Amino acid sequence: MAKGKVELETQAAAVEELPIDGFDYIELYVGNALQASYYYHRGFGFDVVGYRGLETGDRESCSYALRQNNVHIVLTGGMSPDSPICRHVLEHGDGVKTIGLRTRNARQCYQTALARGATGVEEPAEHEDEFGRFVFASVQTYGETVHAFVERENYRGAFAPGYKPVETVASGTGLTYVDHVVGNVEVDRMEHWVEFYKRIFGFYVYQYFDARDISTQYSALVSKVMANRSGTVKLPINEPYAGLRRSQIQEYLDYYLAPGVQHIAIGTRDIIRTVSELKQRGIQFLTVPRAYYDELPQRVGKIDEDIEELARLGILVDRESEGYLLQIFTRPVEDRPTLFFEVIQRKGARGFGKGNFKALFESIEREQALRGNL
């Protein structure tokens, strides 16, 4: 298989792919769901559409469901010190607990996954209210991360049964869909999880990057992108690679204290407008040297965007055979240097910006040095 290229496998998959249509939602366990909802509402432009807590009869947790176009985020906090939610936050800090996957048959996905060796977390449960029928089940993946199978084809409520509708509307920032969700795992564990997604989900290796692709003079990582055949779900898996200094993946593991979700990439149709708006709202991004943009025309050729505008905002560009993409990465959005977000606009390109890896890695290393963690 060619590294850094889309791998269109010609042989049949070892197992049949689970019937997953795409990402449904991302749930974060947080120390204070009310305050976190304010941050994502005011900073990222999400509408708060649903609430579950004491007022709805939930005595254990509090959750806010947020939406912007086809991006759904749930923020959940615990109500007591011995809550598993509070224990999770105490150990890991705020972070992603559940990656929800949309399916037309949650029971089938769960039962097939268990038959193939997955560990169940929540058995299939059907819920109904005045808005329709909702089926949910989940299995364990890397670290304490969970994949949920969500069947909501006939559900018309705010988010899910148990949530009361909320109308806290923001002026959106142009975020439209979840492009990919990246997980960090320990050294020598990437292949284990690659095989897990092949065997349990029927996914395949969409792209592969080795230490020569993603490295600087100090550190490196290796990564494989797992995906379903339609390309609606992409789950890159990173592991550290031995270098002269601590890589960004190892820094994540040192502070999260377990494998987990490193970043969530969200698509936009107008990255200049989106990033401009996010910056006005106080969202902070990584920066790259001016020299990156001086070399850009020769490296990527003609693009629609004004390079000076891209330089002002710090947006990266990479070209592939099918087109090009634009991307930018936030600084960590938690106290610990763990979770961050990517904003991406695809103009034909289907990959992950291999040509930007060095500039991105160096930007992250500058941040690590400021934290004393390089």
- Distance from first to last alpha carbon: 33 Å
CATH homologous superfamily designation of the largest domain: 2,3-Dihydroxybiphenyl 1,2-Dioxygenase, domain 1
Strand order of the largest sheet: 6-7-8-5-1-4-3-2-9
CATH architecture of the largest domain: Roll
Radius of gyration from the alpha-carbon trace, in angstroms: 20 Å
Identify the overall geometry: globular
Number of domains: 2
Sheet-strand content, in percent, reads 35-45%
| Count of alpha and pi helical runs | 10
Number of strands: 17
Portion of residues in helices? 10-25%
The CATH topology name of the largest domain reads 2,3-Dihydroxybiphenyl 1,2-Dioxygenase, domain 1
Largest sheet data: 9 strands, mixed
Question: Uncertain regions: pLDDT < 50 for 5+ in a row?
Answer: 1-13
Order of helices and strands: EHEEEHEHEEEEEHEEEHEHHHHEEEH
Structural class by SSE content: alpha+beta
User: Which CATH class of the largest domain is shown?
Assistant: Alpha Beta
Average the pLDDT over all residues and give the rounded result.
90
